[in-house]
Every structure is written in structure tokens, then in C-alpha cells.
Q: What sequence folds into this?
């Protein structure tokens, strides 16, 4: 069901709306994926002593985004969605500039943290913007379609990063990110109207942030699916932290590894597109439970196979198991976030902020722990994914336990 949809009158149509939202959100994924081929070069240029420390280039951006979301959400409820998105992009650009001119690894990490803080603006305000116009299964359909385009855009990002490295260095990648942000912001400014009328805006206050946090944490459904989203995002972030090392060190794929990464990204995007077409028929929960079950079974199978055969395992075994597992991730992402947001329509901005912040702040440390356990094999990754899958299933079951008597589920 749709509420009053302003976008169809003066703004983009359905397809353009999805494409625009995806491009705006994709700035985060591009900021991660384009960097992956450059991590070894960054480590050498900035004199990083321990190879696993370079993973912080990915983790700190996500951590910064988690910190920023808790503030940008309430700000979007106070000043509107568009000013917050514009401010976020400006902060992101400043972080890019700091990274471009960094001479030490610590300065690079500070730039990445600032980029994450800035990226939190578009990430939070866009989810609230979508929630302003859709809810329930209709929101899940929109979010899944956005996620599908969102994944297809950065799927080629590692290859683009690799191409930039062939003609320049890692600093040029940040310049490309700034250009992408300017283009996306210009498109958004021209085509997308504000979705939060002035009469519905709420004054900014720290007390309201605490109340929003309390409401999310006291709502079993929202909290449970927020935790489930965090565990699944932890899976993706762990993979991104370790991807360059796994493909190049374990499997010896050299410069070919962006192609393998693109394939797995397309699996997530394809699943999100499929979910957008079937969620109205089968429901968010039914699809989510089946997806997490298949994910757990696939990871247990892969773990058992590697323990039996030893490392290095076949890259084809890795790709088959992980492509199917990542298809499950694509089913889960849009549904879990939509279920968590469902009780929070009256506080869409702060609700999106708290959920996004908690998801990032929980998943980022988890991915750091598992990623830094990398030891030249995929075993730490496999063990971590099995554990995170089980935690996801447990969080979903706990969240839905109180709904047994409420009738049909979405």
C-alpha cells in the first residue's frame, strides 16, 4: 500500500526514483569496493607494518557511517531530507580530500572515518524518504529494487578501481568518488522533491535521540530484526575486509579478482531484484527464514569441505558456495530492514537513524574481529559466517516470538 506519493507528481517516476535512490546510496559501496584493489599499494605507500591492518580502510568507513546515522536521522526529521543529504555529501567530499593528501596511514584512516560520517547523511535520509511514501510489503518491494540497482552499480567498482590503478594510483580513486558524488547530488537536487512537509518537522534535540533509541530497543520486532541485519551485514563486511587477500593470496588470482567479486555482487543484486518481484506474494518473513536457513547450510557444507580437503581449497568450490550464500543475503537485506522499520512509521527519520547506526556499529567490530583472524586461509571466514548465520536465525526467532498470536505475518 502506498501513502501520499509526492514523487509521482513533480518528481521522478517509479523507475527513475529507484535508480536515483540506488545511485545516492551506492556512494558507500563504491567507497569500499573501488578501494579493494588498491589496499596493497596503500599499505606499501603509507608504511603499514601488519597486512591485516589495511582492512581498517574498509571497517572505519562503516564505523563512521554508524556514528553519523544517529545524528543525521533526527536532523532529517527537523530540517527535511534534502538538506541533510546535501550536508552529508559535503562532509564526504572533505573526507575524500583528506585521504587524497594523506601522508600517513593514521591520516588516511581519519579521512575514511570522515567519509563514513558524511555517507551516513544520504544513507539515513534516503531510507526515511522512502518510508515517507511507502510501508509494509510495498516498502520491501521498493527497497529490494533499490538494493538490486545499488548492487549492480558497484559490482564493477573493483574493476574500475583496478583500471584507475593501471593509469594512476590509489589517490585518484578518491577523486573519482568525489565526481560521482557531485553527479548524483546534482541529479537528486534537480529531480527529487522534498517528502517531509514543514508542518511535520520536529525540532532537533538530544532527548529525542535517546527516546528514539529507547523505542527501537524496547520494540522486540525492531530490535530483533536490527540485530539480524547487523549480523548479516557483518557477513558482507567481513568478506569485503578479506576479499583482496583471499582472492590474491589464497587462490592466486592476481588482477583477475575484481571479476570474481563482481560475480558475487551480482548474486546479491539479482536476489534483491527477485525478492522485489516475489515478496508481495510470499511475504517478508517466509522468505527471510528460508534464506537464512539455506545460508547456514551452505556455510556448514563449505566449512566441512575445507576441513576435509585442506587449504588452498578449489576457488570453484568457494565461488559456488559463496555465490549461493550471497544470493541469500540479497533476499535478507531488503526484508530485514523493512520489518525492523515497520513499527516505526511515526518516527521514520529517527527510526532509520537508530536502526542504521546500530546495524553499522555492531557489524563493523564483528567484521574487524573475524577479518583480523585471517591467517592465509578461508577457515576463519567460514567459521565466522556459520556463527553469524546462527545468530541471525536466533535474533529473527526471538523477534517473532511475541507475534505468534497476532495473525498472518507480512
A:
Amino acid at each position: 500500500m502506498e501513502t501520499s506519493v509526492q514523487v509521482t507528481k513533480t518528481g521522478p517516476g517509479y523507475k527513475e526514483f529507484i535508480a536515483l535512490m540506488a545511485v545516492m546510496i551506492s556512494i558507500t559501496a563504491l567507497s569500499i569496493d573501488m578501494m579493494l584493489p588498491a589496499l596493497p599499494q596503500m599499505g606499501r605507500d603509507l608504511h603499514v607494518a601488519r597486512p591485516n591492518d589495511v582492512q581498517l580502510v574498509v571497517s572505519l568507513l562503516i564505523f563512521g557511517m554508524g556514528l553519523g546515522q544517529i545524528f543525521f536521522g533526527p536532523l532529517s526529521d527537523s530540517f527535511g531530507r534534502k538538506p541533510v543529504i546535501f550536508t552529508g555529501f559535503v562532509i564526504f567530499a572533505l573526507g575524500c580530500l583528506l585521504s587524497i593528501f594523506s601522508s600517513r596511514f593514521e591520516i588516511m584512516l581519519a579521512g575514511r572515518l570522515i567519509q563514513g560520517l558524511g555517507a551516513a547523511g544520504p544513507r539515513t535520509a534516503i531510507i526515511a524518504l522512502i518510508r515517507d511514501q511507502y510501508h509494509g510489503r510495498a516498502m520491501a518491494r521498493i527497497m529490494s529494487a533499490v538494493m538490486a540497482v545499488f548492487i549492480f552499480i558497484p559490482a564493477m567498482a573493483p574493476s574500475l578501481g583496478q583500471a584507475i590503478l593501471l593509469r594512476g594510483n590509489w589517490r585518484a580513486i578518491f577523486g573519482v568518488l568525489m565526481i560521482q558524488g557531485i553527479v548524483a547530488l546534482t541529479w537528486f537536487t534537480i529531480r527529487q522533491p522534498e517528502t517531509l512537509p514543514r508542518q511535520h518537522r520536529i525540532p532537533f534535540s538530544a532527548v529525542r535521540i535517546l527516546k528514539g533509541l529507547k523505542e527501537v530497543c524496547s520494540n522486540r520486532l525492531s530490535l530483533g530484526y536490527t540485530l539480524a541485519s547487523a549480523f548479516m551485514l557483518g557477513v558482507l563486511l567481513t568478506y569485503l575486509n578479506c576479499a583482496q587477500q583471499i582472492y590474491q593470496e589464497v587462490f592466486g588470482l592476481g588482477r583477475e579478482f575484481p571479476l570474481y567479486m563482481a560475480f558475487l555482487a551480482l548474486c546479491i543484486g539479482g536476489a534483491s531484484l527477485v525478492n522485489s518481484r516475489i515478496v508481495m506474494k510470499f511475504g517478508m518473513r517466509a522468505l527471510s527464514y528460508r534464506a537464512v536457513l539455506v545460508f547456514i547450510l551452505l556455510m556448514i557444507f563449505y566449512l566441512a569441505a575445507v576441513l576435509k580437503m585442506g587449504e588452498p581449497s578449489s576457488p570453484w568450490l568457494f565461488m559456488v558456495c559463496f555465490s549461493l550464500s550471497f544470493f541469500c543475503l540479497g533476499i535478507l537485506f531488503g526484508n530485514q530492514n523493512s520489518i525492523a522499520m515497520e513499527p516505526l512509521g511515526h518516527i521514520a527519520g529517527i527510526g532509520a537513524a537508530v536502526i542504521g547506526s546500530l546495524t553499522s556499529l555492531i557489524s563493523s567490530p564483528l567484521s574487524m574481529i573475524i577479518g583480523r583472524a585471517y591467517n592465509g586461509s578461508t577457515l576463519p571466514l567460514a567459521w565466522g559466517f556459520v556463527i553469524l548465520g546462527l545468530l541471525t536465525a536466533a535474533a529473527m526467532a526471538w523477534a517473532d516470538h511475541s507475534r505468534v498470536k497476532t495473525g498472518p505475518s507480512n
User: Anything to note?
Assistant: The chain has one domain: 11-403. Residues 11-403 form a domain with the Growth Hormone; Chain: A; fold (CATH 1.20.1250.20). The mean pLDDT is 86. The two ends are 12 Å apart (CA to CA).
